[in-house]
Queue: 3 jobs
Job 1
Amino acid sequence: MNATAQTTRPTSQAHELAKTIRQRIQGAQLSDGSFFMTEAQLAAEYGVSRTVAREAVSRLQALGILEARKRKGLLVRHPDPLRLLSNSLPSLAASPDDWRELAKLRYALEVGAIELAIRTATDQQIVQLGQITEEMEEALREDTQSARSVRLDLAFHAQILQMTGSRLIAGMQQILVQFFQIAPHSEQTAASADRITWEHRELFNAIRDRDVERARAMIRLQFRTTLEAAGPGTD
């Protein structure tokens, strides 16, 4: 057996074992913190080497599904998808193609969630969105590149996604928006500041009026610039 085959076989075994363990945990509906077994017991039960067992466990640890505790063994964990996304994002932006894919993800998330946000938002949440809109307009008049303008833009979109009542949707949006603050972007001009102000105000008005179709059209228009900044290939 050549060196490549010797390397591939344990890797393939570890992949299959990790898949089997994950299915077993899901099938048994083990609760968070439940004892699973030790690494030695795992190797013995599935008839694999300790190396393969260790690699399979390592893969599941990276996904937050297992936790290794000294003198205790392996514990089942219920991973937080938001934490996994947050930890993975830096490695997902290694090329312009990656930026384009993330831009599409943010676009799909926000456009897709706007109807739910409008239908489930409380009156108080809409009032808060209006206050953020006013503060952002003031900040944009002073300086489109200021930290305050960026913070308020983040708060505006975070508030809309909070309106959905979904922790997962709101959390994903905040992670993506924060990530896009470090993305390459064009310099703002007075004209673009006026456009940004108008787009946010019109989007707020549509949400306040509970007008789903107008809000959907405005958020699509607003995120046109996000797609344009990501470069060709986003249409």
Job 2
Amino acid sequence: MVYDIEPDKDGRETLRHILPKRARFYHAKIDADSLASGEDYGQLKNVAVIFISPYDPFQLNRMVYTIKNSCIEEPELSYEDGARTIFLYTKGTKGNPPEELRRLLKYLEDSREENAKDADLMAIHQMVQKVKHDREVSLEYMKIFERERMIREDGYTSGKEAELIGIIRRKRGKGLSAKEIAEWLELDEVYVQNVVDLLEKNPDADDPEIGQMCRENRN
């Protein structure tokens, strides 16, 4: 079983509207990456894509929405393709969600130590703190399509792009080529080469300044 967990804080109506297609895209990416050419389709693993949000994606006040494929004409027909999409609304109450899930979602929404109410949550809290202190790790393990979307969206991404440029700067300082860095970070080689060129031409510029130059080059 493959679990893909997607924290999602942006509840704008335009983005809520495309959530089903976003989930479809994640499922497609996971399936494409998990099955080698020529392999039998039966080797595909079951996949659950889980969205966690502080807003109600479907405005029905449920903490848990579980989505699976079915036959419209025969709702009782068993159609098991191994795909599940689960939307977790942190403030939902309908359906009497279990207390353990309530505590978990409260912690995920507000990851302070005082919200880690049991041993399992405290263990999660310790892992969260470790990742927060290693921004390079957290950026390197973002999905490639999320990272590229992050770079494209000005306003939200200027600070994050500066962090990514800092990683490229450090990798370059260790002697890696633009191609090697692009492969390591799963980024477009043209983008990485552009960053490397800007770093070499502007040795005194800091990471946000290089990021601004990148955005100007894209416009």
Job 3
Amino acid sequence: MDLPGVFLDLAIAVAGGLLVGLQRERSKSELAGIRTFPLIAILGALCALLARATASFPTDAAAVGVPGVMLIASGFVAISIVILTGNLVRAAPSSKHPESHGVTTEVAILVIFSSGVLIGLHMHAVGVAVAAMTAVLLHLKASLHRFTKSLTDDDVRAVMQFAVIALIIFPVIPDRAMGPYDAINPYKLWLMVVLVTGISLCGYVALRIFGSRAGTLLAAFLGGLVSSTATTVSLSRLAKSDGRLAGSAAPAIAISNSVMLARVMVLVFVAARESAMAILPALGALLGASIVGAAAGVLASRRNVASGEAIPTENQKNPTELKSALIFAALFAAVQILVIGGKEQFGRAGIFAIAALSGLTDMDAITLSTAGLARSGELLATNAAIAIVIAALVNTVVKLAIAGAMGGRSLAIRLSAILLLPLVTGVAVIVYFFIAGANPGIS
């Protein structure tokens, strides 16, 4: 056996054990601390080393036979007995601390032993990652407890519903093309549903936790992760109820719109990583102009928008409801069919028209659809970029119309001034792609 390799395994095991032991020592654990955890990790590594020494396949550093498995299992049982004995001693009538403190340290001991085994089997990265994650989880005890207490029943329900969407429904979805033009692959379609729903869920939970305490701008940012359109509706109603809030509502809507554009860029990168660099610069220019406009609106506002009124959240629906997921899946499927059909029947003009129509209601579906076609080579990346920018411009104009209709003339004027730069930039991007693009036609 390679002695330098053995000592490296033991050193890495000690480092992982020290990391967790340090945290437990600071937490004043009575069962194990900064010395015990490294010893436990060493024991796990030694069990793995002995298992490798008894292996029938010495050419494979991680191979262990039946005797090796029994050695590792024996170490696990021995550690379990030590834990049981320690708890019995703590629970004895003569103990100074007979009360129960949970089983966190006990479970951590078993995990670190297993981490040591992984390191001893030359799975260094996995073993160290397990030890590090264990230490982080133990250290975040107070923060995690505060976070859990801040969740409402609706928040927990949203998380559980996402688990149903991602972990129960997704694995059983068939992975094959079907429907008109073979445009629909249920597996890939639901994967996009999981992606979009997951992003929205993060914003939804954060908004529910911080929204009531956050200022207008932070709440608008979080609301943009869920639905920038719903956030615009809430802010417009807020400005209508109190005209003095128009100054803070306008830049907040622009911030929500900027978050929407950033979200679109993330979706493009995930859906078409190979073609993303040809699409993202156009969206980046639009996002940059939107951020500049929003920042100018914040600076121009006479009101301290950072501490403005909180945004009502009644318009932000739970994005993980099965109904919402099915609606998005149907919308995505329809847009996918229309985009492919529009390309076949009308060329790029058909795609651009469908993009404009999609932008009236939703950005995610048209983004994922065109980016997916760019990835598969059915659509030039330049045309995908133009289509997404068109949809973004239409969606921005829709927000401006909502602000004018629901928030009043003052909000509409302020928002128009803020959104003028991104609208002009978007038009310039489209013109540039048409003129400078080597071939804006459909591939």
